[in-house]
Amino acid sequence: MEIITKKEIDTLSVRTSCSVDKLPQTLGKAYDEVAALFGTDKITCTGAPFVIYYNMDMQNLDIEAGFPVSGATKDYGNVKRSRLPGGEQATAQHKGSYETLEKTYNALTEFCKENNKVPEDFMYEEYLNEPEKVSPDELLTNIYFILK
Length: 148
Fold this sequence. Notes:
By secondary structure, this protein is of the alpha+beta class. The chain contains two helices and nine strands.
C-alpha cells in the first residue's frame, strides 16, 4: 500500500447502474462496447480496463467502466469520453479472487486512517489480467482511493 500522485488519464467509458449480482455481465458489456471502438478514428487502448464505483449500494451500483485511451475526440452513443481522476491517491494491489477484494479494501481504508488521509466517496479498480485466462487466486486488481 502506498500514497501516489497520478495525472488524469483520458478514457472511453460507459456509465450505468446494476446490482452486484449483475456486475460481471454489465462490465463485460461495457468493455465490449468500448473495445469495439479501438482502431476507429485512431482510438488506441493505453491501459488496463477499469471500473469507477460512485457508490456502494449493492442493489444499485452506480458505475463507470471502460479503458484508458488516446485519440478519442468525441462521444460514441453510450460510450463517452471521460477521465480517470488525478491527484493524490492511496493504492493497493489485490491478488486473488474478486470475492476477496473486501479484505484489501478494508486494509486500504485502515492505511488511509493511519496516514491521516480522507478518501473521496468514490474509488476505482484496474484489472490487470482476466478471469478467463488465469485462475481466481492469480487475479490482480489495483484499487485506488482518491484522497481529499
